């Protein structure tokens, strides 16, 4: 496998587009402004209600999804994959061709997005830590949904935000991220913390503190699958998104997801490389500062854009960021697709090939060791670049729609439009910055 494959996931440069980057950025900004104007005229009352929106899924499908054998099937598949990759991590060689790296950095981190968009909260269904907790509860006669203590509401999603930051730090900043030892240690700590947390606080801990489950569940809000009580329903992704619980730490989660992806683009740019080469500080220190600045910066821009809005009698400014944070989820999904599309398609294939030989001894356990990698997407750079730009712009437009729906739900009529202007400015800043970084990567 060529050395560049694990790290080649940028846009490929402005030359791949049939029009100039300046026109793309100007067009994207115009699309947001026009979308906001149309919404202001045509969308003046709330359209989504979690308790009534959506239509029941087909009976045959609901029967399958609700069956115990279906859940057991996915949980078994997830745990078998976990054991297989764990064996490669423990007994495999410390080489870049070890499939652990591809599963960890590509299948898990990037692959969760399309899987969750299509199937819903995938990680919740296959999570090995949930399976371990379930097995432990059955052995001890306990209830896996109930812990010794009640999960503190004030913590919200903050533990998940910290876990997500720990992951992106390992991937983007830590200088030994492609060595087996650090990855094994990270995963061991993750499993240990999740196991203890599940024992103490039950399944609520996974819903709020598991970084991968929170990530997958947030993205799944953009799928067509939802719940109305215990009923499986099919409804608009925007209706699902509007039902996202506004808990503490939600802004932190989306800020880490968006900010880390933006930093991943920026640290591959010539601007950053020249800065690092000309600095007297260590690359490691600058990387830590850069990642932190991007994540915190995204959070601050969003918080500022929300707290400057008008208020109703029952609202506090400090509550607004979490109430509007769900509107960043489409932006995160669009930007992940834009930034990692070719990375997922090509390195994902490499990982599948490597999984047949987990111990790097010439084995072919899965029958995929001799498969060829398709580089079709790289051979069509204009299609690739255009797809990525569309993903970024579509994500931001959907974000504007989601924010508008929330504004007409909670803001007094006199502030429903003017109150959104600061957030619209923040969205435009995200769009311009995101496209600029994609072109510069």
What does this structure look like?
The protein is mainly α. It has one domain (5-440). Helix content is 64%, strand content 2%. The protein has 19 helices and three strands. The chain has a three-stranded antiparallel β-sheet with strand order 1-3-2, with no helix packed on it. Helix 4 (99-108) runs antiparallel to helix 17 (329-355) and helix 13 crosses helix 15 (283-307). The radius of gyration is 22 Å and the shape is globular.
Topology:
Layout: H1 21-42, E1 55-56, H2 59-66, H3 68-91, H4 99-108, H5 112-119, H6 122-126, H7 128-140, H8 158-172, H9 180-201, H10 203-209, H11 211-220, E2 225-228, E3 231-234, H12 237-242, H13 250-266, H14 270-278, H15 283-307, H16 320-324, H17 329-355, H18 381-410, H19 421-440
Antiparallel strand pairs: 1-3, 2-3
Protein name: Fenitrothion hydrolase
Keywords: Membrane, Transmembrane, Transmembrane helix
Transmembrane segments: 23-43, 72-92, 104-123, 155-177, 183-206, 283-311, 323-345, 421-439
User: In which range does the helix fraction lie?
Assistant: 55-70%
Category from helices, strands and their pairing: mainly alpha
- What is the number of domains? 1
> What is the general shape?
globular
Side by side, the strands of the main sheet go 1-3-2
N-C termini distance: 22 Å
- Give a count of the beta strands, DSSP E runs of length 2 or more: 3
- Integer average pLDDT: 90
Tell me about the largest β-sheet: 3 strands, antiparallel
Helix count, per DSSP?
19
Oligomer: single chain
Strand fraction: under 5%
Unreliable residue stretches = 1-15
Rg on CA atoms, Å:
22 Å
What is the H/E string? HEHHHHHHHHHHEEHHHHHHHH
Transmembrane segments: 23-43, 72-92, 104-123, 155-177, 183-206, 283-311, 323-345, 421-439
Protein name: Fenitrothion hydrolase
Keywords: Membrane, Transmembrane, Transmembrane helix
């Amino acid at each position: 496998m060529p050395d560049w494959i694990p790290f080649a996931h940028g846009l490929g440069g402005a030359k791949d587009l049939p029009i100039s980057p300046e026109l793309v950025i100007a067009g994207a900004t115009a699309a947001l402004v026009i979308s906001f104007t149309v919404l202001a005229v045509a969308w003046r009352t709330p359209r989504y209600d979690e308790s009534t929106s959506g239509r029941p899924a087909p009976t045959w499908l609901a029967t399958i999804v609700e069956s115990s054998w279906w859940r057991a099937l996915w949980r078994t598949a997830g745990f078998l994959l976990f054991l297989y990759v764990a064996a490669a991590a423990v007994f495999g060689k410390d080489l870049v061709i070890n499939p652990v790296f591809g599963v960890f950095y590509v299948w898990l981190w990037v692959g969760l997005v399309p899987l969750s968009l299509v199937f819903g909260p995938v990680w919740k269904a296959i999570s090995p830590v949930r399976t371990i907790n379930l097995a432990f509860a059955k052995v001890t006669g306990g209830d896996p949904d109930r812990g010794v203590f009640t999960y503190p509401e004030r913590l919200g999603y903050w533990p998940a935000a910290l876990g997500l930051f720990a992951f992106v730090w390992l991937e983007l900043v830590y200088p030994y991220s492609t060595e087996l030892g650090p990855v094994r240690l990270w995963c061991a700590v993750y499993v240990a913390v999740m196991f203890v947390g599940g024992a103490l606080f039950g399944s609520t801990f996974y819903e709020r503190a598991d970084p991968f489950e929170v990530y997958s569940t947030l993205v799944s809000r953009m799928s067509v699958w939802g719940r109305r009580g215990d009923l499986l329903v099919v409804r608009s992704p925007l209706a699902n998104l509007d039902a996202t619980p506004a808990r503490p730490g939600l802004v932190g989660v989306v800020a880490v997801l968006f900010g880390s992806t933006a930093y991943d683009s920026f640290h591959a740019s010539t601007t950053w490389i020249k800065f690092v080469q000309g600095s007297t500080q260590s690359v490691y220190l600058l990387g830590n500062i850069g990642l932190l600045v991007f994540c915190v910066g995204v959070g601050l821009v969003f918080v500022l854009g929300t707290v400057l809005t008008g208020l109703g009698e029952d609202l506090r400014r400090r509550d607004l960021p979490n109430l509007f944070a769900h509107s960043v989820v489409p932006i995160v999904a669009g930007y992940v697709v834009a930034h990692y599309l070719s990375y997922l398609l090509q390195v994902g294939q490499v990982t599948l090939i490597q999984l047949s030989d987990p111990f790097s001894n010439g084995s072919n356990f899965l029958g995929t060791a001799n498969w060829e990698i398709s580089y079709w997407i790289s051979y069509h750079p204009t299609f690739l670049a255009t797809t990525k730009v569309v993903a970024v712009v579509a994500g931001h437009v959907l974000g504007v729609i989601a924010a508008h729906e929330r504004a007409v739900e909670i803001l007094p009529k006199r502030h429903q439009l003017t109150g959104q202007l600061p957030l619209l400015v923040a969205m435009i800043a995200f769009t311009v910055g995101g496209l600029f970084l994609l072109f510069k990567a």
